[in-house]
UniProtKB/TrEMBL annotation:
EC identifiers of the protein: 3.5.-.-
UniProt domain Amidohydrolase: residue ranges: 51-564
GO molecular function, one term: hydrolase activity
Name this polypeptide is given: Amidohydrolase
Alphabetical UniProt keywords: Hydrolase
Uppermost EC category: hydrolase
Pfam families linked to this entry: Amidohydro_3 (PF07969)
Amino acid sequence: MTNTIVTGGRVLTFDPAFPEAEALVLSDGRVLAAGRTDEMTSLAGPGARRIDAEGGTVMPGLVDTHPHVMHFGTLAGGLVDLTDAVDHADIVERIRARAAITPPGEWIMCTPVGEPHYFIRRSEQDLLERRLPDRWTLDRATEVHPVMIQAWAPKMPNVVAFNSTGLRAVGLTAFIPDRVCDVDLEKNETGDLTGILRGPVTNYYTYDPFWGQILMKLPPPNLENAAAGTLAEMARFSAQGVTTVYEGHAMEPEHIALYRHLRASDALTLRVMATFDVESVIFYPFDPLTLDEFTERLRHFAGQALDLDDDMFRINGMTMSPGGPCFSGYFATYQPHLNPFGRQTRGVRFLSTEKEEAFVRFCAEHGIRANMCMGAFREHDEFLDIAERVARDHDFRDRNWVLQHAITITPAQVRRYADLGFQVTTSAGFAWGKGKMYGERMGEQVWRDLEPLKRLVDAGLDLGGGTDWGPKNPWEQIELAQTHRFAGCDHRNDGPDQVLTRTEALSMWTTGAAKVIGWSDVGSLAPGNQADVLIVDRDPLRCDIDDLADTQVLRTMLGGNTVYDSGDLSTPVDEATAVAR
């Protein structure tokens, strides 16, 4: 096979044995070597394919340890994209275009307006009209299709819009009260529904009984749209420089099956490590399993929870998520805090401590890698008490179990996780997107324990980064791990327990992330590793912190093949490789 040599830029290998080089040689989908240009030219041979980085930086592909690629891709698959809509006329035109190719009577579902999933920097309030269109405006697009502009979690309260046909399809008429449960139904001065609903009207992490009944009347994603949406989402990740992801949260059997289908079709453009979620609580309706049913599900997944033979799709472990996020009012705390509607709450435990102990004990007894997705003080304490008790009977401390989220966590809890041999994946974007909300609802004292990345690293916990709800830009997440700025206010949660160095922040997306997911040949350009290579337009290790989030990926290679090319490099892309532009 023809070798490839990459020259013309600084090479950051993230390999401690040889961290920096002038050139990189790839062979048969792997890294052959990195070193001086003359040495690498000789090693590559006279017939080598050459790539000129043209002053850019060459580095390993990024590893996103909490991306929700399939979930968010499936949510958007087949929907009319309104994220960048500018006004009502633009929205009407986009829906009208979809209506022209959609059989009458079928739903036309639309994305929210703005930047998912926090909708802080841009939302429906940034439309020219500063609001979503009402049903009469949407009726101009179509009267023979039910239409809905969705709201996506985690922002709550939120807002949706239906056209007139959509209102009839879900059974809403002017006879309904102005408020049902926590849902506000907007009416005009004559008492007619406008089609605008506000409140817990999101499509996940919502358990409002009234809204739940409406959700049940909406069309579920179909397999074709789910696959297309996932492929589109993978392309967006490739364009940001991500080459490996960890789908470790809310992965139901149908999600695993779709990934297997994409792998069998040779359609994956990212390496995927996944886990089975033993009982997902994200989507409505949530009908808790009995303890016997839960135990049987553990046994059913146990035989499928380890598959590490493939270089593109792997499974390792099972996940449990006992609680929910603060935006929805489900964060498990000791002191009461305010939910989205101004009522006091101490949060909700969706899965019982009996199930949690059954999960921990089962994984420990059977050598299964457990993932605990938790972010609240009370959740940590309840779990740690169980885990320490089980570890005395079945020591799992060398199994590299994973704590996901860790949004708030005290120094004592960090030490207990470290003693149990845990690794951690979290998102600096949690503090960015929710820090202001935490201060308002729970009190500013919570900020001292919010996303304490340095505290985790100093305790010896391996740490991986993820985009999760946003920002969906890994370079901005790397910046946020250092600045800890909040969206929507001027506060920076940049205390000594939070702020990472640039090297530590980059490790969360390279070597540290690879270690967390247990994929040993990604995350660095060490000899023998996968040839997952980026060429970016600046040096992310040395550029000014204010410029880091604007890093542009010029080319992304997966196993030596180009999966994204910006068109800004003069070296042509091999025609045999798949390219997304």
